[in-house]
Amino acid sequence: MSSLLPLSTNIHEPQRLSLARKLILLVMFCLTQFIDTLSMSALLSAIPALEASMGMTEIQSTWVFSGFRLTFSSFLLISGRLSDVYNPKTVFIGGVSTLGILSLCAGFVYTTVPILVLRAITGIASAMTIPSALKLLVKVFPDPLEQARAVGFFAGCGAVANMGGLVVGAMFVQRVSYHWVFWFVAFAADLYFHDTVTIGETAGSRKPKGAKWKSLDLVGVGFPSSLLIFAVTSGSTDGLPPRTWFYNNFSVLLATALLPSFCIMWQTVFHWSVMSTAVHMLPLGIVAFAASCTGSLSRIYSPKWIILTGLSLCMVATLLLALGGGKPENYWPFVFPAFVLGSAGVMVAFSHTNIAIFQAAPSSMSSTVGAMFNGALQFGSAIGLAAITSIETSVEATHGGSHEYAGRAASFWCHLGQSATEIKTGRLVLERYPQPTDESREFQQRLMLLCDTWNLFQGARSAAEAWRQRDKAERVGKRKREQADSGPIPTRTTRSKTRTH
To answer: Collapsing DSSP states into helix, strand and coil, what is residue 146?
Structure first.
């Protein structure tokens, strides 16, 4: 079955790297995803301890995650554009080092407001690492098949960190204190920082230094909380209709990333310990990592059906959790199968949407496109977190409180309806989405040529203006030097003349 998405081509051939070096760089990039996700998931096990230690309310503890996601999704776009215009290695190392410093400081905080502020700033540091890592990864693996496998492995490390973070957080909370959750992230980031300085320069074009800041599209990134404003204005560097939305199937794939997602803990319902809760959720990470290794399927089957299959598995898993899961004896007949099917479906949909977006866009826009995709994911997660909190609170108020499963079941029914709508809409839109024809390809090439021509014109105009200013400054300097060499200019004295009548 043919693929819906054309393979991206890179006109700038990257530097030849050995297989061993490619694998080492892939592991380093994936560790970035692991550390970023770990800093989020490890706190899930520490939330009860945080609430008890700092006197947080349920709404305030939600902002430990929401504050991180808000700044993370907002500054992903700026980070992606910075990685496209400037050296992604600099952005990458800066984000990792800042993440370690902020996590170290968070471990010494004992009050609510400072921890929320630090978590929000940590989101900015994490946002600097993901787009730059994706940019470097795309450069290291230019071959479409290798790139699909690398992106899938990159996504799989996030799934492993999701579940590994639960275990790590549970160990620290149960054995020592929640402060060690932050210090562990700081130690991992610091250790990783010393390794990242060995990353070599990536191949690719570099714009003149004087023109780089103009390519950032400061108007668009000046409103970081608005995903659509940035996406519309950052596609072209100087304000023409953006090319980003003309990439084949890009809009549909980005909409898939907006699927709300959330995580529900059974700690208060089943009365499990922190460690027992984390161990029972290990199947999510194991199955999700295995599903992330299916990247090569995108070369055999259409991404449309792979993504819809993943969403269908999510729908089945949500139905199982809505019907059962309120009692400990329901773990094996309902919860465990839902974990296996749901985590596999989520990872299949996420991985292949991620792969398809990078295949649809050229490598020169990989950081920006990756930032838009991850920003949409965070936006969907924020929607899911707000929805689950609202639904659970309202249902639990009349059905036995937070220790009953009624509120969580209601949120799953809501998610079931949303998943069904997503599948139906995606199926119709993808069927009606215009397939590439010779005429559409020719029109797209002409449009991109027009954008490139305009950008070249703007660059030539900026260069001419800079040359004029430099020439003017040189003439003024030459004139001043000539005056200095000729000595002081004699002052002219005038005599007053008296007019005789």
So the answer is: helix
Nearest to 202 by CA among 358, 360, 86, 369: 86
Q: Which residue has the tokens 């089945």?
A: 316
pLDDT for 325 equals: 78
- Structure token pair of residue 146: 């290798």
Q: Which amino acid, one-letter code, is at 344?
A: A
Task: Name the CA dihedral angle for 38, 42, 43, 46, rounded to a multiple of 10 degrees.
Answer: -170
How confident is the model over 180-227, as pLDDT tens digits? 999 999 998 888 776 665 554 444 444 444 445 555 554 444 444 444
Nearest to 346 by CA among 271, 276, 263: 263
Say how far apart CA 413 and CA 395 lie, in whole Å.
Answer: 12
Supply the DSSP string of 295-316, one letter for each residue: GGGGGTS-HHHHHHHHHHHHHH
Q: How far is CA 109 from CA 54, 105, 118, 182, 183, in A?
A: 10, 7, 9, 10, 12
Of 178, 30, 195, 39, the closest CA to residue 103 belongs to: 39
Give me the amino acid identity at 17. L
SS3 call for 362: coil
The two three-digit tokens of residue 47, written as one number: 């939330």
Burial of 57 (C-beta count, 10 Å sphere; 0-12/13-18/19+)? exposed
Contact 73, 382 (CB under 8 A): yes
The burial class, CB within 10 Å (0-12 / 13-18 / 19+), for 166 is buried
Among residues 36, 207, 196, the alpha carbon closest in space to that of 131 is found at: 36
| Mean pLDDT on 280-302 | 80
Residues 6+ apart with CB under 8 A from 376: 227, 254, 255, 257, 258
Q: Euclidean distance between the first and final Cα of the chain, in Å?
A: 112
By the 10 Å C-beta count (0-12 exposed, 13-18 middle, 19+ buried), 317 is classed as: buried
pLDDT, tens only, 89-119: 888 888 989 999 999 999 999 999 999 999 9
